[in-house]
Amino acid sequence: MSVYVFGHKNPDSDTVCSAIALADLKSKLGVACTPTAQGELAPETKFILDKFGVAAPAVKTEYAGEKVFLVDTSDLAQLPDDIKQAEVLGIVDHHKLGDLTTSSPLECWIWPVGCTATVLTAMYKFHGIEVPKNIAGIMLCAILSDTVIFKSPTCTPADKEAAAELGKIAGIADLAALGMEMFKVKSAVEGTPARELVLRDYKDFNMNGTKVGIGQLEVVDLSILDAVKGDLAADIAALKAEKGNHSIFLLLTDIMKEGSEILIASDDASVVEKAFGVKPVDGKAWLPKVMSRKKDVVPKFEKAFA
Amino acid sequence: MSVYVFGHKNPDSDTVCSAIALADLKSKLGVACTPTAQGELAPETKFILDKFGVAAPAVKTEYAGEKVFLVDTSDLAQLPDDIKQAEVLGIVDHHKLGDLTTSSPLECWIWPVGCTATVLTAMYKFHGIEVPKNIAGIMLCAILSDTVIFKSPTCTPADKEAAAELGKIAGIADLAALGMEMFKVKSAVEGTPARELVLRDYKDFNMNGTKVGIGQLEVVDLSILDAVKGDLAADIAALKAEKGNHSIFLLLTDIMKEGSEILIASDDASVVEKAFGVKPVDGKAWLPKVMSRKKDVVPKFEKAFA
Question: Which of A143, A75, A148 is nearest to A115 (CA)?
């Protein structure tokens, strides 16, 4: 019986690429593993897998009775609804410690770095196993994506070192050029329904008993989103009503200007001012230097909702 | 400002020795750390620290506003009452994943092995830092204690390898002899009040909303406890009433016969039969092969209470 390896809902590139890498590593260590994803892959992730000739993992949402390894999250809200009926053998992650608990001992590699693939690079090294060339390529892309080409405040020296090593194995000399190529794919929104854009990198959080959703779109220039911004604002309001959330925020991140516009749908929009000291106008606000949901946004909202 | 490193309430030898080792390792990696303990040390632990000339950590129970590393647990019930007001930088552990959550990314090394000190042995190696001779000695003792001289079902090949390496560094040739010396210290109960024996290695668990306490005494021969067994049974009944627990169980483990007698104080003693298939007589039952609270006992009670 195969062990499944997967990450969070609305899979991003790190969740998918790290699941593939951990399945490869564990299989080589004698535990037969299959990578899966909890949903359809984003265009950026498809681009990455195509570029390095790696097969996309199957979409699978039910895991009752299965053995699993998790990557890139330990939050129940981001895990399958039946995760409590699965046996979690381990977690590789780079986030805060979530509310998943287990009834048996497990293996956790969780480091405060910019990307799960960085932890996996260390795990390959620890076990003395070489990263295959194509997997090195997708792991490198995961790091470039999660650290916004090393610009995010979540980026650590360990991420840069891992990216350099992976670039060597994958035969990629210009890491920044690969990053821009990826982010241009990510920036293409034309013809994509607003709901799909909102959910592309969306996570629900339980903040002190309050359900808060935070989505993020990263683009190489915010003006790309001018034509769809009205639709996005309307859609997060609609999604908030459908899900019964207290709030849904959508971060429109300009990776070159290094800041985010936040679109707000909330029962109490004052939490934004409480969190960032900026008064929203017309349900939105510009947040300079805010690049990372995890580091710049979630902790501030958690305090505001405490 | 120093970062504090400590483990669970009612500190056992692994919690104390691993806190000392992690504080040493982190300090050498540039994060000044001080080991502490949440309570007085057990006789076995004092013997270990004396034997290798290592200073006992100070007892400290309040951590609000402090930065901390945790060892040997991630269960809130086993952590200080004010842990939510501390910043948890990381966890080194070998148990199931508990209900601690954090609001920031952290560093976790949690492996399904017999002892936290085994994980620490790998961490020293990962960072290319030599384990000091005296700390190798106490880490070795932690492994011998937690794995009951390699006899516990929790013992893995990694524990044996780590113990062998640490033995070499510490200059200990006969590991089993050191283990027996330790367990003889642990077995001495004469003149010790029943409450102190019950609490010596006692943990509370939240099992599906039910508060369940499980203590354990490990002796080289169960007959050592004949004279105090009545007092122990009376004391867990009293402690149950004081704490308002649903159940308190005390495991009297015979490390040579490799099994445990369980003393029962419970609102519903049938959970013992449900968990182990053995009908208790006079509030107690012999459980053959049951050596490890973590592996042989907690998962079975968690199912029985589910």
Answer: A143
